[in-house]
Amino acid sequence: MSKQAASAVRGDFVDDIPAAARPRAATAGGPRLLELHAINAAEDAARLLAGLLAGQARTDPKFFYDAQGSALFDAICHLDEYHPTGTEAAIFRQYRAEIARELPRGLQWVDLGAGDAAKSREWLAAVPARRYIGVDIADAWLRPAVARIAEAYPRIEAIGVVADLTRPLALAPLLAETPDAPPLFFYPGSSIGNFPPDRALALLKAIRLLGAGHGGLGTLLIGVDCESDDARLVAAYDDALGVTAAFNRNLLRVANRVLGADFDPRAFAHRAVFNREESRVEMHLVATRDQTVRFTVPDRAERDFAAGEHIVTEYSYKYTPARFTALLEAAGFTDVRIWQDAEQRFAVCLAAAG
Fold first, then answer.
1. What domain range includes position 61?
2. Could you report the per-residue pLDDT of 264-296, keeping only the tens digit for each?
3. Predicted confidence band of residue 5 (pLDDT cuts 50, 70, 90)
4. Percent of the chain's residues with pLDDT above 70
5. CB 29: neighbour CB atoms within 10 A?
6. Co-location of 203 and 109 in the same domain
7. Domain count, the chain
């Protein structure tokens, strides 16, 4: 659960900067803001509708995060059951100085999925950074986040990049502006788990290519949730207060707004299960009665849901340290170092993009 080479290289996540991507100030005289990927409402609606009409109905986790969904997710991160946030923070506190000593001086701190940049603000006090580059699709979050970084660290150049981590990420020209400053790609929160392993590998390869363009000095600092007791994993996605259930059902409100649909969120139950064979937590919305849902945008359509039929709303893949190390190495990273909590529920990995 959560909140992606040279510019000539093309692949799933790396591409040239489109001509429409023009630098613009976040505020008058404020930090730079680049827009690589504008939100395309029509494309998003078509994607959401296609998933809901598929044989196995499913949605993309990006549709969780409207204003209400984002507030609910923030509440989830403070729940006792949701261990990734607190466990990762504890690892950072315990090992921050040790990790910082491993990093090159004068680096470019590239915050992937920056959100409010709170995690990066803590790191920038400890690392020898020359630049901060916050990357997020949510312009409304990114602008104030980058402004706060600029205010707190006036000696660090602060830049925001509006971009979708699921689309080609064209950061090479921006990174090349300071060729002597190696990039550190910061991807905390186990967000990598929202990608199936093949897509996670593609994203990691793209990041490695971007990092390798600086004499092999680029690095990746990434958080990953680990396999542990099944009951503990499920509880993290099905808390006793029902906050995660509300977060999950809120997706149906989003569908109603985006697709002109008539979902009744009360007619779907939240379910979280751990699929051990695939090593992933799955979140579902399960129909509690037979019903027909109608859509009016972008096309008129309807879908019958039988009682017990479910919509897949999220997969969250979990890794052992050995399996995640193998994934990093398959992407071309080397010198993988890992820090964990005492119960080994979470791992923070530092890897070289040589």
1. 41-65+230-317
2. 999 999 999 999 999 999 999 999 999 999 999
3. very low
4. 92
5. 6
6. yes
7. 2
Regarding whether 144 and 170 lie in a shared domain, the answer is: yes
List C-alpha distances in Å: 100 to 167, 215, 280, 311. Answer: 30, 20, 31, 43
Q: What's this model's pTM, rounded to 2 decimal places?
A: 0.90
Residues 120-133 as b/e (b if ≥16 CB within 10 A, e otherwise) read bbebbeebebbbbb
The first and second tokens of residue 126, run together, are 């400890």
